[in-house]
Amino acid sequence: MKTENKFFEAIESVAFNKEHKTLLQQKLNTCVNHTTVAKSFYSDLELARTRASFLKSKSLDNLDKYLIEFESNFIKKGGKVIWAQDNDEAIKELTKLIEKKSAKVVAKNRALISEELDLVNQLKVNSINCVESDVGNYIQNLAGELSYHPVFPTLNQSQKNIAEILKSDLISDNSIHARDIAASICIKIKQQLKEAQISLLGVNFLVADAGAAVIIENEANSAQLASLTKTQVFLAGIEDIIPSLNELDLFIHLYGTYSIGSAAYPYTHIVSGQKQNDETFGPEDVYVILIDNGRSDVLAQTNQRSALSCIRCGACHNVCPVYRTIGGHAYQSVYNGPIGSVLTPLMKGRDEYKFLSYATVSSQELLAACPVKIDCAKLLQHNRTESIKLAPPGKTEKLSVFFWKTAMLKRSNMDKGGAKLKNFMMRQFFKKSWGERREMPQVAPKSFNQLWRERKGIK
Ligand code: SF4
Q1: Closest ligand 1 atom to 312 CA
Q2: How many domains, in total, are found in the chain?
Q3: Closest residue by CA, ligand 1 atom 4
Q4: For 288, phi and psi rounded to 5 degrees?
């Protein structure tokens, strides 16, 4: 089935599901309320957003320089950097590394990049067991689903659903109390993590001048994982770089504010190379895999480049009416919501994913919601223009637009034919695109022009 058809099929099953919609709206409203409160703690939020936007643009415009600076600083402290052109190369390098260490069990943290790599399944093909350290991802894995939201993977699951998913795995007494569920999962995850020999950690940021990988988290899963494994592998997209450690606090606070509505996450880990002789903690062997996988193509398009500034806070998802209706899985991409609709066609090909360029609204609300001022609406407009250039409209569409334009530009043309004929034509032309579940608007029996003339007595 074509990806576009899968998209429409998925929409059909979720958009009219009242239970799903209510759950999604409730959870997203809570996110919006929390972020609104957190934003009020800034004395000058606008300045912080402008600075963050500028720094991300600067990083992307000088990406080659900052990546090399990062690599050289990371290597200085005993770290190793692997460059991967695409997913296949990243998995190949990772597998080689795991085999070299004779590891059979590895563990990962919550990160979209590992879903982009399809890490768990790809490693399974090579007989490597990849266990999960994050509760949300653990549940979604059991359900056979991808993360629903960049920050809240289980956004689509009710407490009852989660209990159902965990029934065969953990819960024997049908308990659906949240505390029991969380406790059971944590025990199980802890047991599994003990077997892991290597940790695979998706990062939030890479810092060029410090040669450091940064992870920000709520529950110290990555920290726990890192403390259990001597070898640590950080997975990063090339766009995750920021120039300097001095700027990290700006991004940490913006990320906390816009993702969970808190001034900062409880845990921030900064790892710059392997454990030094005078240090107590740290990895004995540490790697960063820098993954391109289509990002250079986005970078090459200067007017679309800003999409790579995304720090994956999910704030645009929370306010997007389309995401709020169809949720995260319909998009057919790990990167969903408005920013996913921008990035996916650029990274994975316009031919297959151009339909996503229409999967959000052109609203200034998306720009206002974004901590790094990405103008998703403008970027989507551009995507649409490019998609049309790739597949120009056929003769029938051109002819229809010609007639429509001719009719619209002249009042006397618009007034021709009665309401019945116009309603008939509307039904014929727009029945399919209007959908079966919406009522087609009706042309009134008398036009405004006719009513005006009658009232004024004009013949
Ligand atoms: S586009 Fe902006 S608001 Fe949306 S996830 Fe990325 S950083 Fe957050």
Answers
A1: 5
A2: 2
A3: 316
A4: -125, 130
**What would you report as the CA-atom Rg of the chain, rounded to the nearest whole angstrom?**
26
Q: Verify whether ligand 1 is closer than 6 Å to residue 189 (CB atom).
A: no
Q: Is 369 in the pocket of ligand 1 (CB under 6 A)?
A: yes
The answer to whether residues 76 and 207 belong to one domain is yes
Tokens at 232, concatenated: 């640590």
Domain that holds residue 163: 41-293
Structure tokens at 379: 């970027």
Q: Which two structure tokens, joined as six digits, stand for 362?
A: 């052109």
Contact 258, 149 (CB under 8 A): no
CATH number of residue 243's parent domain:
3.40.50.10420
372 within a domain of the structure (yes/no): no
Of 262, 293, 324, which marks where a domain is finished? Answer: 293
Q: Are the C-beta atoms of 311 and 254 separated by less than 8 Å?
A: yes
Domain boundary among 241, 274, 293: 293
Q: Give the span between the Cα atoms of 189 and 200, in whole angstroms.
A: 15
**Ligand 1: which atom is nearest the Cα of residue 315?**
3
312, 336, 342, best to mutate for ligand 1 pocket (most atoms within 8 Å of CB): 312
Q: What is the pLDDT of residues 222-263, one digit of tens each?
A: 888 888 999 999 999 999 999 999 999 999 999 999 999 998
Residue 24 lies in a domain: no
Indicate whether residue 67 lines ligand 1 (CB < 6 A). Answer: no
Please indicate, yes or no, if residue 186 is contained in any of the structural domains.
yes
* Ligand 1 centroid distance, CA of 365 (Å): 12
- Supply the residue whose CA is at minimum distance from atom 2 of ligand 1: 370
Instruction: Look at residue 350 and tell me if it is in a domain.
Output: no
- pTM reported for the whole predicted model: 0.89
Say how many Å lie between the CA of residue 409 and the centre of ligand 1.
40
Mean pLDDT lowest among 44-58, 122-136, 176-190, 250-264: 176-190
Residues 345-375 pLDDT 10s: 999 998 899 999 988 777 789 999 999 999 9
